[in-house]
Amino acid sequence: MHPHTAASVEAVFREERGLLLAxxxxxxxxxxxxxxxxxxxxxxxxxxxxxxxxxxRPGAWLLTTARRKAVDRLRRDSAYAARLAILQVDADRxxxxxxxxxxxxxxxxxxxxxxxxxxxALPAEDRIALTxxxxxxxxxxxxxxxxxxxxxxxxQRIVRAKKKIREARIPFRVPGPxxxxxxxxxxxxxxxxxxxxxxxxxxxxxxxxxxxxxxALRLARILRRLLPAEREVAGLLALMLLVHARxxxxxxxxxxxxxxxDQDRGLWDRDMIEEGAALVVTALTGGPPGPYGVQAAIxxxxxxAADFASTDWPQIIALYDVLLSLAPSPIAALNxxxxxxxxxxxxxxxxxxxxxxxxxxxxxxxxxxxxRAELLQRLGRLPEAAAAYREALEVAGTEPERAxxxxxxxETETPGT
Length: 417
What we know:
Among the domains are: about 1-95, no CATH class; about 330-415, Alpha Horseshoe (Serine Threonine Protein Phosphatase 5, Tetratricopeptide repeat), CATH 1.25.40. Helix content is about 70%, strand content about 0%. The protein has 19 helices and no strands. It is globular and about 70 Å long. The protein starts with a helix and ends with a helix.
């Protein structure tokens, strides 16, 4: 296959996979069947497109091909057909969901399936993992990174969720408007995890996957229109806007990583920052704050500072204290320690980082080791800094991150460079 055609197939599949799966699950009510015929449609594309050319509407071509293969499978496989018939009966007994073209429905197939997979019969982490893997298009290692667990653990979790769906005969149906709020938290976590993978890819040659980040923003905007009274929806959208506003400054001309303190703030998207800051006010007004609203407020303080030196670190630390009281997590604790280092000096920050050393979820999280290495280097403890940089290099996923860590490691090995 010509490399250009292979790249086109890969790009189309990456963009269309989640929507394709969502459409097929909505049509046939079976996730395993949808995944199998989606893979078969991709194989057909890899065979046909080099000969016939990439179609004008590649997503429609894949969907039509997958539907035909699903129908053929059901005609051949009586067991599949019987199982789908049972699921359809269960769905009919559950009652009709709000149609997608009404004001109470969800005007996006993928978002519909996010809410569908957020079924209360599944454990919270399992349903979020399943949605990220199957419908958001993240790989199993990428989903594992979002949960700070090994890929093998995540693979087992996804298999368990699928088994639960089969055994409990959970119907794939769009929940009605009255069911949406109860499932919202899981959906927000899925959307944010998609954005996080776009903002900081877990592997590959590039630091960012802007297509994923922008897809997450699109879904968050839909949620904001559908649920305008939900302040955490406003908070999530604000957080993503305020972070995504820095996208053009986060890498240099060759794709190299540029740290926040070194970024050209003239490259930041001021319209996006203004929109995000206004949403922060909405998210924090009218009741106790939620985790996304607090994180958005932290991002706003970074974006509104004239330069890195004038960042309001005391206020950021206070907001991290609020965040940790609402949603304790090792990542929030890591970020708070970094902020304390900026306010009180590297020794104070390092003490907080060392207190997190026993946290298992940080062992494979390279920003933790990189942060320790940075503070050790600032304290002049160069052999320890070098060791921490090496540990970070072992688990860093993208080449820009690895290149940055290699440069810092050389500085510790050859002082004065």
